[in-house]
Amino acid sequence: MWIPTEHEKYGVVIASFRGTVPHGLSLEIGDTVQILEKCDGWYRGFALKNPNLKGIFPSNYIHLKNACVKNKGQFEMVIPTEDSVITEMTSTLRDWGTMWKQLYVRNEGDLFHRLWHIMNEILDLRRQVLVGHLTHDRMKDVKRHITARLDWGNEQLGLDLVPRKEYAMVDPEEISITELYRLMEHRHRKKDTPVPASSHHLFVQMKSLMCSNLGEELEVIFSLFDSKENRPISERFFLKLNRNGLPKCPEKPERHCSLFVDLGSSELRKDIYITVHIIRIGRMGAGEKKNACNVQYRRPFGCAVLSIADLLAGDTKDDLVLKVYMCNTESDWYQIHENIIKKLNARYNLTGSNAGLAVSLQLLHGDIEQIRRDYTSMFTHGVSITRKLGFSNIIMPGEMRNDLYITIERGEFEKGGKSVARNLEVTMFIVDSSGQILKDFISFGSGEPLASEFHSFVLYHNNSPRWAELLKLPIPVDKFRGAHLRFEFRHCSTKEKGEKKLFGFSFVPLMQENGRTLPDGTHELIVHKCEENVSLQDSSRYLKFPFSKGHLLGNNHQAVKTSKESFWITSFLCSTKLTQNGDMLDLLKWRAHPEKIAGCLSKLKEIDGSEIVKFLQDTLDTLFGILDENSQKYGSQVFDCLVHIINLLQDSKFHNFKPVMDTYIESHFAGALAYRDLIKVLKWHVDRITEVDRQAHNQEVLKAQEYIFKYIIQSRKLFSLATGGQNEEEFCCCIQELLMSVRFFLSQETKGASSLSQAQAVFLNSFPAVYSELLKLFDVREVANLVRDTLGSLPTITNADESLQAVKLQCIGKTVESQLYTNPESRCILLPVVLHHLYVHLQEQKDLVMCARILSNIFCLIKKNSSEKSVLEEIDVIVNSLLDVLLRTILEITSQPQPAGSATRLQFQDVTGEFVSCLLSLLRQMTDRHYQQLLDRFNTRDELRDFLLQIFTVFRILIRPEMFPKDWTVMRLVANNVIITTVLYLSDALRKNFLNESFDYKIWDSYFYLAVIFINQFCLQLEMFTPSKKKKVLEKYGDMRVTMGCEIFSMWQNLGEHKVHFIPALIGPFLEVTLIPQPDLRNVMIPIFHDMMDWEQRRSGNFKQVEAKLIDKLDSLMSEGKGDETYRELFNSILLKKIERETWRESGVSLIATVTRLMERLLDYRDCMKMGEVDGKKIGCTVSLLNFYKTELNKEEMYIRYIHKLYDLHLKAQNFTEAAYTLLLYDELLEWSDRPLREFLNYPMQTEWQRKEYLHLTIIQNFDRGKCWENGIILCRKIAEQYESYYDYRNLSKMRMMEASLYDKIMDQQRLEPEFFRVGFYGKKFPFFLRNKEFVCRGHDYERLEAFQQRMLNEFPHAIAMQHANQPDETIFQAEAQYLQIYAVTPIPESQEVLQREGIPDNIKSFYKVNHIWRFRYDRPFHKGTKDKDNEFKSLWVERTTLILVQSLPGISRWFEVEKREVVEMSPLENAIEVLENKNQQLRTLISQCQTRQMQNINPLTMCLNGVIDAAVNGGVARYQEAFFVKEYILNHPEDGEKIACLRELMLEQAQILEFGLAVHEKFVPQDMRPLHKKLVDQFFVMKSSLGIQEFAACIQASPVHFPNGSPRVSRNSVPVSMSPEGARVIPRRSPLSYPAVNRYSSSSLSSQASAEVSNITGQSESSDEVFNMQPSPSTSSLSSTHSASPNVTSSAPSSARGSPLLSDKLKHSRENSCLSPRERPCSAIYPNPSEPSQRILFNHIGDGALPRSDPNLSGPEKAVNSTPSSWSLDSGKEARNISDSGKLMTPPVPPRPTQTASPARHMTSVSPSPAGRSPMKGSVQSFTPSPVDYHSSGFMSNSPVLSGSYSSGISSLSRCSMSETSCFETQVGEHPVPISNCNISEEPVRKESKTPPPYSVYERTLRRPVPLPHNLSIPITTDPPALPPKPLLVRPNNLENSSKRTEQVPRPRPLPRKVSQL
After folding, report:
1. Strand (E) or helix (H) holding 472
2. Taking 60 as the threshold, does the pLDDT of residue 1874 lie above it?
3. pLDDT band for position 314 (50/70/90)?
4. CB-based contact 842:886 (threshold 8 Å)
5. End-to-end CA, the chain
6. In angstroms, rounded to a whole number, what is the distance separating the alpha carbons of residues 1852 and 1698?
7. Among residues 1853, 1818, 1417, which one has the least CA distance to residue 1630?
8. Rounded to 5 degrees, what are φ and ψ at 1438?
9. Cα angle for residues 719, 723, 729 (degrees, 5° grid)
10. How does pLDDT run across 599-618, given as a tens digit for each residue?
């Protein structure tokens, strides 16, 4: 039976549990669980990480932990009772764990590893805390480390700042908001602005001395030197080096490492230097040879200097090498460091050995204890401490020092009877009073143990040596008295045995007889002569002698024999026990000399402060002793001395001695009667405050009042204890009188900064310190009344000076902080006077920082939810006094601009935050009663209105993101909780007072605005939080957004008819609220839009305002990342449901649908704009949205904005042509007028003309960069017209030159023709703008099908490529997936005039083949009816699909949606006609090129002839005959009679062309290919006989006969005619669209098989003309290297070479299903240009689609060589006018593409007249591409490895041989040339009719290299003007005609209204 648990409430999982049992809960090790019930070894509960999932788990898997339960029952909350630091660590580490893994995913390796180390450290520290064996101090230290690391990690990860108190997290609900703010601010300051350290330390490590010739031991002495004051400022760091220059004791770090401590900030300057003196120990001369003398001397070696400023930048200098210098003369050694610093180069130079000193230096900051904690390893390993000379800046009371510093300065000695000067050495000893030498009290420096004697270094031959060696003598105090220093002088001989001979000595006592120590300063000592062997052990023998010259003169001793010789030393005492001051000694011994008391007291002020504090207790005892003895006589003097000592302790140097005085007062003071004298003297001074002559002294007295009161109170306590409380009333009266004098003096008003006001300021500054003393003897209320009266006597703010006001506030602040104010009894007395002064200052906006601090302290004492009566009364007082002024203050300081200075700005932020926290504290403490009283207090509605507006405004300020730092989420949540509580209270007042007839729009608007920005705060968006953080917030505060949303809805409903005032103003704000992903909030707020629509409908009969506002705001809000798919669905469903019963339902549904569609596009746009998305998707989405704004919403401004966004995307993707088209959309909206335009986007304020001019120039630049020069020329003309009309000839000239340069670029530069691809996006996983739509895309340069397909799959990595070209079914449309269907399509040029006109260079024509393209074609072969196994061509039909786009390509995007599909079927006969027609044209072109020598070799012609003849001989054409010329077919298809005749004509025509071609071939064929030619001639006769053709006697002429049209041509309706030069000119029958199309290349690789077969082409018996024929394919996959040999490639011409005419089932399947794989290519490329059967009569087009439809007899070489461009997979079927024009044949050179193969030419020439009745719009485009290898390589070689493709045999292979791109045309009778509409920018009427912006249909391509036109193909110059580029006005009528025809098929888009004046 399951029973609820009582104690087992909380536990940790210690072993993972899979939860395999029924109702089992899966748990992982480390999870925390809350237990609800138990039963027989099982628990039931939930894991805290997922509280919604409950289940059972074994009890032995759980480790129970102590916990307390809140709210027992269903909603109980379990809180573990462990240390709060442990709880925080656990939850924080869990949060970090998830984020830590994300760091790895985001590749933030550095932070990942650092955080990993920190987490491990925290876990180790957590274990230490959990063990519980730490001492209290160690536990505190561990917690400090833990919290520091937690804060660091939170900061690095961007998590919230955690408020802590004593290392434990605080609950914001348990403390006041002001206290919470201070905790947050303290942690924030600690994090952001580290407090600069006041003390610094220099770490020095000696590494080595690098020198070439050492050989002797060295002493190295470091010290710090102040070059400004020219003195050392530190002791010395002394170490010894061995003969190799390394430290002698490397195992003892303290011997070669030192820390120079206690450097003040003032000593970190550039004139402080580290000086290093190096002394060698050895022979007298460094270069002396070794001799018998073993005596070693200390001799100068070198010196190095380094400025400490070099360390200030980096703090660390590792492996620093200092140059070592030596002075030129040894006598300058004492000042060598000064010479180096002053750079007196003449006095020193580098040491001869060029030595270098290797050291490591580091500057450390902070007090020494902090350094010990932070650098524990340094102190653990050992480091010597080097002090500053003397006391540090701050003297600590417990510091015990007694150090005497002796500097051996210099000496003056006689020669002593020698011819040269002496080598002097000084030896020093410390001798005690008994004559014994004191052992180990001489310190050479830190790092070296103490010694008993000292030997100076020796200067060679110098009787006036200067040493300047500093020594420290740490002699104990007890040995100081009677001790003296003895200095012995010896001559060090370099001769004899190197002995040291004593010749004199000096001495100096350390203490005088009167107890004074040796005074500081320089002492000249007498040198006493002595014999060499004299013994000085008996000091009594020489102590009676005078020791110094000054002492000698002072005591008038007899002359000393050796008075000419002197020795100088400098002494400096640093002692806390001994004094050198006689006046101090006299005062302390006052009882011995009573007569000197007055003098001693007067001299006390002259004694140095350090001497006084050393003997502080003794001095105070002396003073009070004198006061007790004779208060009448010395009372005033003692008082003054006491004031002097008290104020001395205010000095920062002696500040630490205050505790010493406090201890003295508490424990040692015994003056029980002193209080009377102290009160009397103090009152006397206060009464005489106004006397001018005593001002300075009186201020000193007032400054010392704190300790004077301490002495008074302590004295009174001692008196009361001694007398049992006598004279109590008298004492009270004295105090009252004293304070009355104070109040009188405070109440004196003065103007300006007078001495009185200064005295008042001094008193107020120290007065609060007296409160605690008065409380020791008086009742709390009495003291409070005294203080209240005293503070109440202060002068008003208007008459006092500024400085006094600041001090007054400081006094009030200290009062609030004092112990007195914390007592509730005294607080109620003091609060009114405090609030009064605060109110006055806040009114004047003065001293705001202090006011904020005082207010914060007031609220810190008022805890939350304190229901005590006193607290409620205090809140009443504060609300009545300060609420209004507090609100005004916050408004005032937040409306001011923030100061520029960082320090001032920080202070500004601080004061704002403090006032805000005070306001929040006050509001949180207010109860219902307080709010009611507050509202009742307003007498009029205007007052209430002003108050509400004020508080709403303040709340909006509090919600600002910049109000608190971004990681102060805790503070923000508390503030929001207070705000929403207050708003709920105030909303009642709003409803009661400002509705109906009292309605006030402004206050209601302020309310709604506040509510909206409240809900939209970032800190309330719980969806952004981690699960644990979200859970905590919900538990503590709930979702405050929903609460406020419900309040908004409630208030909205209360508005009634006043709602119309807020429409449409509130639509945007409410929309922003509904976009928040909170379901409850959305459900509450979305219905408000229905209400708005309803009221707007009532008011104006429509809701256009609602629609307009919704649309405007949706764009901006969704672009900010708000909203989602769920919102779109919810918005749609809720509103549709709401309007079901409305009368205006229909228009409402329309609005909702429009908004929903806009959301779809905006969501897609936002998703596409995310980082990482490809440019193509971004551009497509932007185009979709832009068109939506234009066509459906008619929003001009948004339309223009997205034009520029699209423009930027194009520029980024380097789509310069598309960028130009995009900018044209904006340009079209402008006119050439002087209308002023406002500043908009990046455009300045300018006229419409200027902006349009700028746009034109920018567009021209982009067209230039995109190589669309034709379009640029048109714009150049337009802007030139404007310049000309304004007579701006300068700019006109520039524009004409620019236009000319564009013409030059057309003719000189190459540009590539792009491929076009059809892409279908199927499935519901695509964005809305792509979903279940098909597009045609313009490929990039050199981009073939397989590359394009790969790019698309990269853009949509989850998409599946469909492997067929069939239209998908509904299941694909509705699938929850992404399907891509990609195949190449063929463009159908819109305009034919330029393409048909003769004589136009190919550079020009190529532009019109791929620009302004609306229609694209794709063919799919299939069998209709029963398939004939013997001849499959009987039933092989072609389905030709024509795709019509919504806009032409290129345009504002690289892809446009397919608007319409047209599908026609071509019969097998029509197919055969088209194939033969194309092949004939191909042959004519090649023959013409060969004749005119445009070919560099004849191989292409050879292979084409071979392919046709070989296929025909082997039965290829016969298959057509079998299929269509048999009686059965003719009887069954009587309607095809004309077509059969046409096919027959084409066959005959082909025979003529071949015969002529063979003649030309014979003329040019090389000798090595003659056998092949002979074979071709033989096979040709076989072919003719198979066709039943007789000899053409007059046709074949071996001579230079050439055909302007490229080949002989026979009229289709007449008998063949003989060809002659005169009769060679014929009339071409052309389809208007049968022009050379885009230059294509195969995207397949060149197979090795193809190469091999091509290399043997001359030996093939099969047709080889298809070497240049590229089989097109609609395959979505790449063309493989082996596809050229695929058996699935079929053609429409039969061939007997294959042996069988039958196709396998596999081929049938692949053909019928139009498979897109390279191995299953359909024959679409073989089937170009379908025409309606009833219309199609003759086909003579050659193009990329004109390949045989199904040729089973393709020979192997053909397959191997024919390289297939992927784009031919869809052949265009655009029907257009028959336009022909005279022109010239020329072959355009094409640049070779990398990794691409030879490509066939795409030229379409026709040489037969067309029947007159043929419709001008019927026809087909066939295009094919010249191959760079055919014409521009070094010539086509028989073993060329660069050709690949597929062969075709017979007639079927006539489709793709390389040929020129132009043919000779003549205009058909009755036909009218169609002007070119895609090369001009039409005027406004044309633009309105057009689907797209003006017909700039061009794209970036590389122009082909121009080839000169041969003379033999030239034609007479016509009188027609050049066609390109026509002027706009010339083409307008036809352009209109074309546009109108196209418009009939496609609905015209809604025109955009012109509102450009505003843009």
Report:
1. strand 466-473
2. no
3. low
4. yes
5. 78
6. 14
7. 1818
8. -125, 130
9. 75
10. 778 777 777 777 787 777 77
